[in-house]
Design brief:
Two copies of one chain form a homodimer.
Chain A lengths: L6 H8 L3 H8 L7 H14 L5 H8 L4 E6 L5 H16 L3 E6 L4 H13 L4 E4 L12 H5 L4 E4 L9 E5 L1 H14 L5 E5 L5 H16 L9 E3 L4 H13 L7 E4 L2 H14 L9 E3 L16 E3 L2 H17 L1 H6 L3 E4 L2 E3 L11
Parallel strand pairs in A: 1-2, 1-3, 3-4, 4-5, 5-11, 6-7, 6-8, 8-9
Antiparallel strand pairs in A: 10-12
Chain A binds a DNA duplex through helix 2 and helix 4.
DNA sequence: TTGAAAGCGCTAACAG
DNA sequence: CTGTTAGCGCTTTCAA
């Protein structure tokens, strides 16, 4: 093992004290211009690289924020990460990204691990099955700021950047009703997750407002992954006397899986026989034919806003633990072919 | 600021020495069973959490490996990451994922930053424009194992897990020729990147083998993002007397962008007027109509293999720096509608 | 089985 | 402007 170069090596070579080296390296005003140059030159020469473990230990800061999300591959999250990175990089913070794969046990491990590494703040979008914020207590107790984004908890007093899920679902459903849909089913996400509860409520409110029939059997809960979606659409199609003419899906991933299934395995046409709407505006939603009508969640903005809020809290701990801030990001209905039924005049 | 609980706090409470606490916490055989239990209980009670900064500094290990990729949102990479995580998690290592956005300067910064954090090993798929491995010298000099995956360099002696790009491109091109394509253009990636050079060569070899005309003007280089792809297809379509009947694209992202463009802005039909093939088997490629014929890269396997190799090297530095290992992962042609021209008999 | 003591590499108060 | 000194929290010889 090659020995790593330390400030002591530089100090010895330059006949200076290690503290001077340390100052020079962090560009302190308390060291001469000439000395700085000598130090920098020598550091480069020897291939010196500051040991952040030691530095962090000493300063009790890591300049690192942890980001925990269900899946990096989901468009919503990868775009949110881009927003987070943009903000965070400009302030010289680093980001550690971890995915929970929507598994609560994994999430707990990650959250614990990040704490042990003494991150300066945490940005988290919990799993569908995360029941409460207990695993985040450690952060609260040790005054490490946490900001939730997208998914969140009812209580726990965490600051968050969320999306107007209910309005989004309402607008989507209303739009489908306006396009002559009469019998709308809903593919819901895990009901323990508030965002999916909100989406469900938005759907339901739209039905009620338009005096359309609502039945519990119109709503199917699942994890909204492709496998779930296909299983559910099969179940729905089995009851031939009770077919919907529209599907309000809790996300695009499930909606896309269903569109593909219908196209390949049935004679049902979208949107003529069955209209379909989704959530998140995945890239594939603009590629499929017909295009999938969906709710854009402005995930870049969500990520950006959450990161700004977190950095704010990191720099003002008072604020972080005396207030609880909630920012709601606006929804946007993206209308494509999958909902274009003929309209009665 | 709440003071963090340290082993000294535990030691004081239990009237033991900090070293005993440390041993108990890491389940050393050199401490009594009863003592261990007391320590663990107290640790839990006080909400103790080991400070990895300090631990890492002392042991000179971080149990962390860095992963640097162009984009987390690309299916190829997110799947490779899943492969990496699977291997690495089982050995209690952590993963730090960073994206370079295919920008060399960003990559350099990330690589430097990861080194400063003293990761135990690095997995990297460099940017298209990364000219050489100079920025990885730091790792070599300090005997920190590096494994390249997917993208790589000609020399530098790095171990790597790569894909049989040439064969993949050859097979794809041959398949298109078998489907009656006569004039095949190629959307190439940055030529400085070997994988795209290989894909180009595979394309070219297939033309030659079939005695089809090859011209430099048939090949267009770019970053293969959607914007580039659309710009290029527009340019190609302008020369109405020199239109291709097939496009061999360097990746799916560009192929998909072109299919969408053709569908929305021209009368050209895929595959009748122009056949299209891609690389990577993005999820959208199976959703678009017609489906996009592509080369599956088994990215999960690539990630898994690269991670296994890296862990191997971490545990046997000799091997890591005395040998250079190259594993090639097999390609698989996925045939879909986008290349199904009528075949002459 | 436990304790004492040193030190990983760095920073920051204090002193000059 | 530079040096001295102490210590962040942990692990690990060495000693008992």
């Amino acid at each position: 093992m090659t020995k790593n170069i330390t400030i002591y090596d530089l100090a010895k070579e330059l006949k200076l004290d290690s503290s001077t080296i340390s100052r020079a390296l962090s560009d302190s005003p308390r060291v001469g211009k000439k000395t700085k140059e000598r130090v920098l030159k020598k550091a480069h020469e020897l291939g010196y690289s500051r040991n952040m473990m030691a530095s962090n230990l000493r300063t009790n800061k890591t300049m690192t924020i942890g980001v925990v999300i269900p899946y990096i591959s989901r468009h919503f999250f990868s775009e949110a990460i881009d927003g987070i990175e943009q903000v965070v990089a400009s302030k010289n913070y680093r980001v550690i990204i971890s995915q929970s794969h929507d598994d609560f046990e994994t999430e707990k491990k990650i959250v614990k691990g990040l704490f042990m590494n003494r991150i300066d703040g945490l940005l988290i979008s919990p799993t569908m099955s995360t029941p409460n914020a207990e695993h985040l207590n450690l952060y609260h107790e040790n005054k490490i700021p946490v900001v939730l984004f997208d998914r969140y908890f009812e209580n726990g007093g965490f600051s968050k950047v969320i999306f107007e899920d209910r309005k989004g679902a309402f607008d989507l459903t209303q739009h489908m009703i306006d396009n002559n849909c009469k019998k709308l089913f809903h593919l819901a996400g895990g009901i323990s997750s508030l965002i999916y509860k909100e989406r469900f409520l938005g759907y339901k409110e739209a039905l009620e407002k338009n005096n359309l029939e609502f039945k519990d059997s119109y709503v199917r809960s699942s994890n909204l992954n492709p496998e779930d979606a296909i299983r559910i659409i099969k179940e729905i199609l089995e009851k031939k006397d009770d077919l919907p003419d529209a599907l309000v899906c809790g996300n695009d991933v499930s909606a896309l899986a269903i569109m593909k299934y219908l196209d390949e395995n049935t004679d049902l046409k979208v949107p003529e026989d069955i209209a379909i709407g989704g959530f998140s505006n995945e890239p594939a939603s603009d590629i499929i034919k017909p295009g999938l009508t969906t709710i854009d969640q402005h995930s870049f903005i969500i990520g950006k806003t959450a990161a700004e809020m977190l950095l704010n809290f990191i720099n003002d701990k008072e604020k972080a633990f005396q207030t609880s801030n909630t920012v709601v990001v606006r929804s946007e209905l993206i209308i494509r072919g999958s909902t274009k039924k003929k309209i009665n005049h």
